[in-house]
Design goal:
This protein has 576 residues and is α+β, with helices and mostly antiparallel strands. Helices cover 34% and strands 23% of the residues. Strands 4, 5, 6, 7, 12, 20 and 21 form a 7-stranded mixed β-sheet that branches. A hairpin with a 2-residue loop joins β1 (37-38) and β2 (41-42). α13 (356-366) crosses α15. The relative contact order is 0.11.
């Protein structure tokens, strides 16, 4: 009887335990369903992360065009070669064979590819570096091999169809964290506008990473980057590139830069530099754009602007004479470039001969405040604001009389090529200065809407029309006059009437003073054409040219005559 009661007691306790166990399980399920975190672990996060994937949709970077509509920088499809090693429906079968075959296509050794294919505990691997950013053609060639387990991840890369053509203006890009980032030139200055806005898509995936059919997909479309049209005329740019290439093939120099601008609008029509670089290869050695980031003493081209200041102030007279050669300024002295001068000559002749003493006389007569005021009004000592990255401002801070005298002929100050181009616009616009610009228009490629258009931007009346008329006469006399001793005579052209001024500047030494050597200088030319009604500005500078200025004159004349033919500016001769 006791035995029977004992058995009943054990069954009763068992039932209680079972009921309590079920109650605990139900309570746990209720707890988990109502609360995200259990025992310090976020259950919902784990579940979501395991089965839900959000993939970025890269925005297409905008295209950069010439003013002629030619694509100078654009996105093209690129691919990364990947190998599926485990769990995939079709993993790599014969690793050694695969490595040997792919090595001939990816510029990688079979051993390196084999090491990647043997990566432990990997679902898939990238076959880099040779398998990254490959072209569409190479992808197709590899697909034809029908290698099991080999796939591709589609991406894009920046491509520059014309190589080193206008490369400092366009700039280049690099990839950072999978994103194309502009560096240098327009690529950098307009990086955000070119990049657009990435989108994203969220979907359910299986254990292999593939989307599960018939499950929700949430997509936010990407917004394409803006297309940018430069003011660069591809024909004019080619004239510049060819002229510098010819000069570099025959002469030795450290660098050369030449720029052509529309004198009536300020648009930059071409700017070329040697040495250059191919943004597809990134074989770049100089990371500053010479047009906006090279700041150096301009030399005698500055006489254009100091003489204009003197004309405007009424202290210049063509026929007034002075003693050239040497001018004492306190205990110091200013000398002409040939050290001895030409005796007593007129200021008109002094300009044609590029007399430092003539410029110093006029600068000191004006005084520091007036001279510096005019030069600042011409834009020296401050950035122009052109749409290019890393523009320098130059230095214009003379204090003492000797410094004022030196600044009048372009020494003891620094300027950039673009500042000289900007100041030269006054010659073609009756004394009104224009801001230079490089962007013709910006377009939304999705709608075709023009969201920005560049154009003529007047910066004010710097000098009077009578002053610019007088200066154009002096520049014409310097190039096209009968005096063979004029420094500009070698720039005389046949096809159109080019006018301008030469310059030669010493190079400041990092240890103080100036570098010593026959070729330790920067030679330049600043001019406009045609003389009657200037339409174009040309500015060229060359560092450490191991020659006379003849190669610069040859290059400038070649460019000017090519543009004259292209734009039908030739002088018409009428025979009676």
């Amino acid at each position: 009887m006791k035995k029977k009661n004992n058995t009943i007691r054990i069954s009763y306790y068992g039932i209680i335990c079972i009921v309590l166990l079920f109650a605990w399980i139900i309570g746990k399920l209720v707890f988990v369903s109502y609360f995200d975190e259990v025992d310090g672990v976020n259950i919902h996060s784990i579940a979501s992360g395991r089965y839900t994937t959000t993939a970025k949709i890269n925005a297409s970077r905008g295209t950069i065009y010439s003013v002629n509509g030619e694509a100078l920088a654009k996105d093209v499809n690129s691919y990364t070669v990947i190998a599926y090693l485990d769990l995939a429906p079709k993993p790599v079968q014969d690793k050694e064979y695969t490595a040997n075959v792919l090595s001939e296509y990816l510029n990688m050794s079979p051993e390196r590819i084999m090491a990647l294919l043997s990566t432990p505990n990997a679902y898939q691997v990238e076959l880099g570096p040779g398998g990254r950013d490959i072209s569409e053609k190479l992808k197709i060639d590899i697909e034809k091999l029908e290698l099991p387990g080999i796939g591709f991840i589609k991406d894009s890369k920046r491509y520059y169809p014309y190589g080193d053509f206008a490369s400092y203006t366009i700039g280049y890009t690099r990839k950072r964290d999978g994103k194309i980032i502009g560096e240098l030139g327009v690529e950098s200055y307009y990086n955000n506008e070119l990049n657009g806005k990435d989108g994203k898509t969220t979907y359910q995936r299986d254990a292999y990473g593939y989307q599960i059919p018939d499950t929700p997909v949430i997509t936010e479309d990407a917004e394409s980057g803006k297309d940018i049209y430069l003011t660069i005329d591809s024909n004019i740019q080619m004239y510049l590139e060819n002229a510098l290439s010819d000069m570099s093939n025959e002469y030795t120099f450290e660098w050369a830069n030449v720029t052509i601008a529309n004198a009536k609008t300020g648009a930059i029509l071409g700017s070329a530099t040697v040495p250059s670089f191919d943004p597809n290869k990134l074989n770049i050695t100089q990371y500053n754009n010479p047009l906006v980031s090279f700041s150096y003493e301009p030399g005698s081209t500055m006489k254009i602007f100091s003489f204009m200041a003197a004309i405007e102030e009424g202290i210049y007279d063509d026929d007034e004479e002075f003693m050239s050669g040497v001018k004492f300024v306190g205990r110091d002295k200013v000398t002409d470039w040939n050290d001895y001068g030409w005796g007593t000559i007129s200021y008109k002749t002094g300009f044609a001969y590029s007399s430092n003493v003539a410029a110093a006389n006029l600068g000191l007569e004006m005084g520091r405040d007036k001279l510096v005021g005019y030069l600042k009004n011409f834009g020296f000592g401050k950035r122009t604001g052109i749409e290019l990255a890393n523009e320098y401002s130059g230095v214009l801070r003379p204090t003492y009389d000797l410094e004022v005298a030196n600044v009048a002929f372009g020494q003891g100050m620094t300027s950039t090529p673009i500042q000289n181009v900007q100041a030269l616009t006054t010659l073609a616009n009756d004394g009104v200065m224009l801001r230079p610009y490089i962007i013709d228009k910006v377009i939304d490629p999705d709608t075709g809407e023009v969201i920005y258009r560049g154009g003529r931007n007047e910066l004010g009346q710097i000098v009077s029309k009578s002053t610019t008329d007088k200066m154009k006469g002096l520049l014409d006399y310097a190039v096209n006059g009968d005096d063979l001793a004029s420094t500009g005579k070698i720039y005389e052209t046949d096809s159109t009437r080019l006018i301008g001024k030469t310059g030669t500047a010493q190079i400041a030494s990092s240890s103080g003073g100036y570098e010593i050597g026959m070729y330790s200088n920067i030679k330049s030319f600043a001019g406009v054409f045609p003389y009657e009604d200037p339409e174009y500005i040309v500015y060229m500078s060359v560092k450490k040219l191991q020659s006379s200025s003849t190669p610069i004159a040859k290059a400038v004349k070649s460019i000017v005559e090519s543009i004259a033919k292209y734009k039908n500016l030739q002088i018409m001769y009428i025979f009676i």
